[in-house]
Amino acid sequence: MKVISTNLGKPTKIVWNGKETMTGIYKYPVDQPLFLCTEDVQGDTVVDRKYHGGTYKACYLFAADHYAHWKEKYPLLDWNWGMFGENLTIEGLDESQLRIGNTYKIGTSLVQITQPREPCYKLGIRFGDQNILKQFIDHGFPGTYIRVLKPGKVIVGDTMELVEESKAPLTVQQFYNLLFAKTKDQDVLELALKNEAIPPKKREKLKKWA
Fold first, then answer.
1. Long-range CB contacts (< 8 A, 24+ apart) of 129-133?
2. What pLDDT sits at residue 50?
3. What is the predicted pLDDT for the residue at 140?
4. Measured between alpha carbons, how far is 8 from 89 in angstroms, rounded to an integer?
5. HSE, side-chain direction, 13 A CA sphere, residue 164
6. CA 8 to CA 26: how far, in whole Å?
7. Which CATH class is domain 2-166?
8. What is the 3-class SS of the chain, one letter each residue?
9. For residue 153, which phi and psi values (nearest 5 degrees)?
10. Are 69 and 139 in contact (CB under 8 A)?
11. Which of 28, 82, 111, 154 is the most exposed place for a label (fewest CB within 10 A)?
12. What is the pLDDT of residue 48?
C-alpha cells in the first residue's frame, strides 16, 4: 500500500437546511508532508469534534483504487484526490482484507486501524447529491480511520508497512456492513464487541444488538 496524495482542508462555509455551518471535508492535495498527531493531522481543519478527530479518528484514509467507480457515477465533478475528505489517499487499500487492529508504519508514524468512515450529509454537499450517502453505504468500501500510536511525518510515496496483524479477523468492510445491517450477524457482532481497537463508546452502543 502506497501514499498517492497528502490532503488538507481549510474551513469552508456551507448551508444545510437553511442554516450556515462550517466543514473541513473540502480537502485538496498539498505539496508538503503531513504530520500525524494523536488527535488530528497538523494544519488540517476539524470543525465538529463530536464526529471527527480525536484518538480513534485522528486521520482518515481512502483508497485511490475506488476513485474510478465514483468518477463513473459523477463524471461532471471537478475531480482530484481528497474528494472524500481523506487526509491520505492510499493505493492498494482494501477494506475487505484490512483488519481492524492492524498496526502499520507510515512514514515515521505508527498507526492502528480503528473503524470505517460513516458518511454524513457533508459528503452529499461535497458531491452535490445526497444520494451518494446510500450509494456509499451500499458500495461497501468506506476507507478507514486510524489511531496514531506514534506521531510522525508522512509524504507522498511512503508505504504502509504492516508491523503487527490483529489477532482478531474482523475486517473494516465486515464492521462497516454490520453497522448498517438491519439484522446483525451475531458472529461478526461478537468479533466487534471484543475488538479493543474499536472505540469503547461504539462497542457499548452495539451491545443492544447482542
1. 129/74, 132/74
2. 65
3. 95
4. 11
5. 10
6. 8
7. mainly beta
8. CEEEEEEEECCEEEEECCEEEEECCCEEECCCCEEECCCCECCCCCCCCCCCCCHHHCEEEEEHHHHHHHHHHCCCCCCCCCCCCCCEEEECCCCCCCECCCEEEECCEEEEEEEECCCCHHHHHHHCCCCHHHHHHHHCCCCEEEEEEECEEECCCCEEEEEECCCCCCEHHHHHHHHHCCCCCHHHHHHHHHCCCCCHHHHHHHHHHC
9. -100, 140
10. yes
11. 28
12. 67
Size (the chain), residues: 210
Listed by start position, the domains of the chain span: 2-166
Measured from the Cβ of residue 97, the count of other Cβ atoms closer than 10 Å reads 11
HSE (side-chain half, CA atoms, 13 Å) at 8? 16
Which residues are 61's β-sheet partners? 88, 144
Query: How many Cα atoms sit within 13 Å of 68 on the Cβ side?
Result: 2
Residue with cell 480537502: 27
The structure's pTM equals: 0.92
Chain centroid to Cα 177, Å, comes to: 15
Q: Give me 6's grid cell.
A: 497528502
